[in-house]
Design goal:
mainly alpha, 6 strands, Fumarase C, Chain B, domain 1, two-stranded antiparallel sheet, 2 domains, binds arginine, about 5% strand, Fumarase C, Chain A, domain 2
Length: about 475
């Protein structure tokens, strides 16, 4: 058994149960690449500062290359008794290069080491999500372009409200995901601060240059207070909060589409390749994929709230509780990535079933508001117009007829200002043709939105996305 680097202090080996309980290797081996990156920067800094000789530096860098290659090729001898990936890499380095390897951890603690690894991981995840969000938006935009004139009965409270263009609906999700995209850009700016050099909590007596390692690792700046960053996990919690926000958007879209594609509604059809069947009922074609998106949102929210709970009441600086952060971070990051991929598929392949939507547009008095506004344009005060149209609707309900089935005479009994042009107002298409202001579901606004999105996503396609919000 390989003894741990702190064995000098101990006469006894830890109990097996203690080893098993404190180990995080099975989880944090995922940080290996970041750990090696951090170590390379650290070793180069130690040399620049005259703390390591050129020979030591070169031997360690060579050894780290070898460790990296062993990990890549699956040859790395992971050892459970060495707690975590950080100790595994360091001990293996010493085996490979000998004495010089024992200088790697100079002026460093696992506290700043794990913090820098996690930060690099989180910043990469944030950038990755930004790119995935752009792909979802591209898929939504492509569908919006071809569905500009297609309407569906928009609702509030799940009750028929006003006709809305499918393009407008899809672009609403472009906007929601864009807020997430901007949150991530802000996130990357805020947290681009390197903790490497903070040591255990108080820095080091050696002449370290944390600013240099920060630049070497691509951070905007280095920490201002070692005590702060040794125990800081704001960046991790915040990523999980943004993850929750992204998943909430995904989940609401999933819920919409589950409803749209439900048997009694049927306005949307999902391709078979995105559905699953039933083990008992032969006829079933279920949207399990979207239901799991909703379900996994609960899991990610759980991770975010577990992470907040982990931090609440935790003494400042490093405490071993923090080791648990990865158990919440990694699965949440995976789920967000997978979900954004699924949404891209669903958005590009769902089918709008116009034959089912047409009749639904005739029910529910969807144009009642437009009629009231038409009366306003004829000089009727809105409250009066609302009342007149309300009575008209009640009349229709009693007679089991639609507004469009009434004669002009009947309409004028309730709304005397109406002329024959009221027919155009009662058509669902009025939603597209009679709304002109920006942001509405009117055709002019939809065209404006599409043009704006084309512009935004074109500059992303040119590779500008990551640069424009470079931390
Ligand atoms: N595996 C540990 C973690 O993930 C590394 C830090 C251990 N530090 C310590 N002081 N015991 O947090």
């Amino acid at each position: 058994m390989t003894r741990s680097p702190w064995a000098g202090r101990f006469a006894e080996d830890p109990d097996q149960a203690v080893q098993d309980y404190t180990r995080s290797l099975h989880v944090d081996r995922r940080l290996a690449g970041y750990d090696i990156r951090g170590s390379r920067a650290h070793v180069r800094m130690l040399f620049r500062q005259g703390i390591l000789s050129r020979r030591d530096r070169d031997r360690i860098l060579q050894g780290l290359d070898q460790v990296e290659e062993e990990i890549r090729s699956g040859q790395f001898p992971y050892r459970d008794e060495l707690e975590d990936i950080h100790m595994n890499i360091e001990v293996r380095l010493c085996e490979l290069v000998g004495e010089e390897g024992r200088r790697l951890h100079t002026g460093r603690s696992r506290n700043d080491q794990v913090a820098v690894d996690l930060k690099l991981f989180c910043l990469d995840a944030a950038l990755g999500w930004q790119e995935m969000i752009r792909r979802v938006q591209e898929a939504l935009l492509a569908r919006a372009r071809s569905l500009q004139r297609e309407l569906f009965p928009g609702w509030t409270h799940l009750q028929a409200a006003q006709p809305v263009s499918w393009a407008h609906y899809l672009l609403a999700y472009c906007d929601m995901f864009d807020r997430d995209h901007r949150r991530l850009a802000g996130y990357r700016r805020l947290h681009s601060v390197s903790p490497l050099g903070a040591g255990a909590l108080a820095g080091s007596t050696l002449p370290l240059d944390p600013g240099w390692t920060a630049r070497e690792l691509g951070f905007t700046s280095s920490f201002e207070n070692s005590y702060d960053v040794a125990g800081d996990r704001d960046f991790l919690l915040e990523l999980l909060q943004i993850a929750t926000q992204i998943m909430l958007h995904a989940s609401r879209m999933a819920e919409d589409l589950i409803y749209f594609s439900s048997t009694p509604v049927g306005w949307v059809e999902l391709p078979e390749s995105l559905c699953t069947g039933s083990s008992m009922m032969p006829q079933k074609k279920n949207p399990d994929l979207l239901e799991l998106c909703r379900g996994k949102t609960a899991t990610v929210l759980g991770h975010a709230s577990a992470m907040a709970t982990l931090l609440k009441g935790l003494p400042s600086s490093y405490n071993r509780d923090l080791q648990q952060d990865k158990e919440h971070l990694f699965p949440a990051v995976d789920t967000v990535g997978e979900t954004l991929g699924i949404l891209t598929l669903v958005a590009s392949r769902m089918r709008v079933v116009s034959s089912r939507i047409g009749p639904a547009l005739e029910r529910g008095f969807l144009t009642a508001t437009d009629l009231a506004e038409h009366l306003v344009s004829l000089g009727v005060p809105f409250r009066t117009a609302h009342e007149q149209v309300g009575r008209l609707v009640a009349y229709c309900v009693k007679q089991n007829r639609t507004l469009r089935q009434l004669s002009l005479r009947e309409i004028r009994k309730f709304a005397p200002r109406c002329g024959s042009d009221v027919r155009g107002v009662l058509k669902p298409e009025g939603a597209l043709d009679h709304k002109f202001h920006s942001g509405s579901t009117g055709l002019a606004s939809i065209r404006q939105q599409i043009a704006r999105w084309e512009d935004r996503l074109r500059s992303h396609g040119n590779g500008n996305n990551s640069r424009e919000d470079q931390p």
